[in-house]
Amino acid sequence: MKAPHSQNHTRRMDKPLKGLTICFDLDGTLVHTAPDLVRVTNEVIALEGVGETDYARAARAVGFGSRRLLSDAFARAGHTVTEERLSELQRMFLLRYAADIAQRSAPYPGVRDTLDELSKLGAELTVCTNKPGWLARPLLERLRMTHHFIRIVGGDEAPRSKPDPRHVFMAAGHRNASRIVMVGDASPDMGAAHNAGALSVLVTYGYSYTPQIRQRADVRLRTFRALTPALIDRFAARGGKAML
Question: Does a structural domain hold residue 1?
């Protein structure tokens, strides 16, 4: 039976994940942001006289951005607005969200400890999110998580956002796909990993719009804490370098 944790491995080698770059999605993977995103959605649609939207259905669309959150909420309510008005409401959404970005958001259980552990094991950690960088950084700063990552790349900062592989390569800082892991909760993350030729890790607790059973993933995890042993098992190390 394999050791349930990395202790036996780390006794043999201090840095079994050295040489590995792990790119993390943000919303629904590292941080439970839906409570704030749906809160602001409700505040904005109320300006049109629309009542609160269905939380669970709205949360599944978080990865598609603020405009989609608003348009879906209006569609569920049978309310129509012009594209011009939708753009105006989207601007209001972004201003309100930026002003109080972490009122109800928090890292998922085990995230902080696991990020610390992965860094100590030699991995380089980055954020590869379709959230605009000007929102991703303040969110991580407010939650005191920025120090974990050598790079944070928002969807507005890459040539094209996930599932385009260039977003992953930019976040990783290199194009050696055999040394990259993409961890996320939804199809853009898995698609980006596959398009880049990187290892795809799906966390099943997030906001996936597509049923997760239909998503292609190399590794599936129910909890964030399971990431370290999964990567240790996947990448046997030799001479301080991950065998990738």
Answer: no
pLDDT at 53: 98
**14, 25, 156, 218: the active-site residue:** 25
**pTM recorded for the entire structure:** 0.89
25 catalytic? Reply is yes
Examine the fold and report which residue of 75, 99, 123 is the final residue of a domain before the chain moves on: 99
* Residue 141 maps to a domain: yes
Does residue 2 form part of some domain? no
Kindly report the CATH number assigned to the domain that includes residue 27.
Answer: 3.40.50.1000
Is the same domain home to 47 and 168? Answer: no
Residues in the chain with pLDDT < 70? 1-13, 236-244
Give the pLDDT of residue 210: 81
Confidence at residue 1, expressed as pLDDT on a 0 to 100 scale: 47
Residue ending a domain, among 59, 80, 99, is 99
Distances (CA, A) of 84 to 79, 89, 94, 95, 166: 15, 9, 16, 17, 31
Beta bridge partners of 125: 22
Q: Do 135 and 65 share a structural domain? A: no
What pLDDT was estimated at residue 212?
Answer: 75
Tell which residue, 123, 132, 136, has the closest CA to residue 183: 123
Residues ≥6 apart with Cβ < 8 Å to 152: 126, 127, 129, 133, 136, 137, 140, 146, 171
Q: What is the pLDDT of residue 213?
A: 76
Nearest to 36 by CA among 62, 5, 9: 62
Q: Which of 45, 56, 127, 136 is nearest to 92 (CA)?
A: 45
